[in-house]
Structure formats: C-alpha cells, structure tokens
C-alpha cells in the first residue's frame, strides 16, 4: 500500500514549484497537495491556515495521511491546532529558505511574525530538512539571536532541541548536461533581476572586464519585473554589442544557452541553494560566486570572490577565459544523487 502524504506548500514559485512537481512525478506516493500562489509574501506566510480553512477539510474527507510534508512557509503549528486529525501525524518540515537570514529590500521592514511562524513550525515538526548547510546554520543562529532579544521566560537548550531534528536534503534538480560547443567568452546571468541578487555588482564586473579589453558576450536570461532595475538598464545600454540574448526564453532555449555558456556568475547576497547556478554548472559552465552563503559548500575557493568585490570577480572570470579554471562537479546537489534519499523518506 502506498504511503499517504499530505503536501502543503504555501508559496508556489521558483524552487518551491519545481520541488513539489518533482516529488509528485518521481515518488510513488498517494499524494494530496495544497498550494498557494507565490505572491503577497506576508499574507501567505501568516494567513495560509485561513486560506485553507475550507479546502483542507474537503481534501481530508475520507482520507487520512500517514505523513505531512510542509514547507517552512506553512504555519503548520496553527494548522495542526485547527485540525485535530492532523495533530498526531508525523511531520516533515522543509526549509527552502529561512526568515532569519533573508535580506531586506528598500522600503521593507523587519517583522517578527515570519520568524515565529518558522520557529513554531520547527518545534512542532518531527524532522527538519534544509536544502543547504548554510540554510540550517543560519536558521539555528537566527533562533539563538532572537532568544537573546526576548525579555524573559525563555526556553533553555532550544538550539540543541531543534538541531537534533535537522538534516540536509537539497531540492532535487535534474542535470542538464553538456551539449554542443561552448561559445568562447559567453557569460550567462540566469538570476532574478532584484535587489537580493545585487545586479549592480554584476554591472561593475562587466565594467572591469571592459577596462581590461577582454572579449566577452552576455546571455541575460534572468526573470525581471515590469520595472527594469537601473543596473539592467545600464548593462543594456553600455554593453549592447555584447548581448546575444536578453529576456525570458523557452525552456529549450534556456538549456541551449546554458550549454553554450563558458562562465556563469552570481553576485547574490541571498542564496540558500542556488538552483540557477547549479543548473548552469551541470551544463559545464564555470562558476564565479561570492565567498558566502551556500556557495562555500558548493564551489572551490578559487571560484569564489570576496563579497561585492567586482575586481576580484573579474579576475576569476578572466582566469576562466584563459583556461586557468575548469568546470565544477556539482553531482552531490543533483537529483541523480539525492532522489534515493527522498524516496527512502516517503516510499514504503
């Protein structure tokens, strides 16, 4: 008999969506799934019990799960309180990200609510899974820092209580594989054009490469909002003759450009697993990344530059172009290596 698993994902976007789809496609489980669109972040993380107040009883009518798999965007402690039939069901809580290590953008303000949702969820869960060691460590560190700010009546040994339930299990990512010839000097940017990816640092890297009179081309594949960020506007203007593709493309074209890329670069200040970097590296692109975040687990020191140091990043790009660096094996982060572990968790 198949394991009956209730999958709750309160923010379906990017890695959350590909993760949920992969699980349902590759794990032979009796799934029941509730998801919410990836928008209105603060309402989603705090309001999902209300959003599912009617849908969840309908889904559970005549069906009792053996396990619950919920993302850390789900206020699972409240849901278990509202639905007693779920209170005793074994719970796996999956962290795509954590709100203790999420950088604030312009105009945003810090809020305790998202952190408390994840803390209570972690306490309610039987097992905690993180997509990187950085994600786990920054969560546990953040909990410790939060406790220091609270005035009184605080629990003891909370970090140890949580840590004993923690494990590492990346979002399953299918390797692209190399195909065709590399385009000499092609740099791919396949990240969101938003504040947490620091496109202004990428602009500075390109300016440094230009000053060095290096021949390079650009594949600008990252999704962007309706309002084009200033860094992208300047790149489009200043480096127009270098750009070979610019904008969202089909999946087939996306794979094509990753397979042609010689270098893939990230300048992010927020990354818990870095799926776009891993995809490009699985296609043979040479990574250039900040010496920070999850990247320290994934890429050797010679591929990492000090945070926001555009000149050092340009040095690494130049080293890649001149054959001093090669591609990196990211197999441990791909579905081919992690699928069996996901299978063991839920498939009888």
Automatic annotation (TrEMBL):
Chain ranges of the Glycosyl transferase family domain: 183-299
Pfam families linked to this entry: Glycos_transf_1 (PF00534), QTMAN_N (PF12038)
Enzyme Commission number(s) from the entry: 2.4.1.110
InterPro entries xrefs: Glyco_trans_1, GT-like_domain_containing_1, QTMAN_N
Domain of life: Bacteria
Keywords: Glycosyltransferase, Transferase
Reactions performed catalytically: queuosine(34) in tRNA(Asp) + GDP-alpha-D-mannose = O-4''-alpha-D-mannosylqueuosine(34) in tRNA(Asp) + GDP + H(+)
Domain tRNA-queuosine alpha-mannosyltransferase N-terminal positions: 4-173
Family: Belongs to the glycosyltransferase group 1 family. Glycosyltransferase 4 subfamily.
This protein's name: tRNA-queuosine alpha-mannosyltransferase
């Amino acid at each position: 008999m198949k394991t009956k698993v209730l999958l709750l994902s309160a923010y379906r976007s990017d890695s959350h969506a590909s993760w949920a789809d992969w699980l349902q496609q590759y794990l032979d489980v009796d799934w029941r799934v509730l998801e919410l669109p990836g928008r209105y972040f603060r309402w989603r993380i705090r309001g999902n019990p209300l959003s599912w107040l009617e849908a969840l009883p309908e889904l559970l009518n005549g069906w009792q799960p053996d396990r619950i798999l919920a993302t850390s965007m789900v206020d699972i402690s409240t849901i278990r309180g509202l639905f007693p039939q779920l209170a005793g069901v074994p719970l796996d809580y999956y962290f795509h990200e954590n709100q203790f290590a999420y950088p604030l953008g312009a105009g945003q303000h810090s809020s305790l609510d998202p952190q408390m949702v994840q803390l209570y969820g972690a306490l309610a869960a039987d097992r905690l899974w993180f997509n990187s060691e950085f994600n786990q460590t920054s969560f546990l560190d953040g909990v410790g820092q939060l406790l220091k700010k609270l005035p009184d009546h605080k629990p003891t040994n909370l970090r140890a209580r949580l840590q004993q339930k923690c494990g590492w299990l990346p979002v399953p990512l299918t390797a692209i594989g190399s195909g065709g010839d590399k385009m000499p000097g092609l740099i791919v940017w396949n990240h969101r054009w938003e504040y947490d990816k620091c496109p202004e640092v990428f602009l500075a890297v390109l300016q440094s490469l230009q000053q060095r009179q290096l021949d390079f081309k650009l594949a600008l594949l990252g999704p962007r909002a309706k309002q084009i960020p200033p860094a992208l506007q300047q790149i489009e203007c200043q480096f127009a003759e270098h750009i070979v593709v610019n904008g969202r493309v089909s999946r087939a074209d996306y794979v094509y450009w990753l397979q042609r890329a010689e270098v893939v670069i990230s300048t992010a200040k927020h990354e818990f697993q870095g799926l776009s970097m891993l995809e490009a590296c699985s296609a043979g692109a040479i990574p250039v990344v900040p010496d920070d975040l999850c990247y320290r687990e994934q890429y050797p020191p010679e591929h990492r530059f000090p945070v926001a140091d555009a000149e050092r990043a340009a040095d690494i790009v130049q080293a890649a172009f001149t054959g001093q660096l090669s591609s990196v094996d990211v197999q441990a982060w791909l579905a081919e290596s992690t699928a069996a572990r996901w299978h063991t968790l839920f498939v009888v």
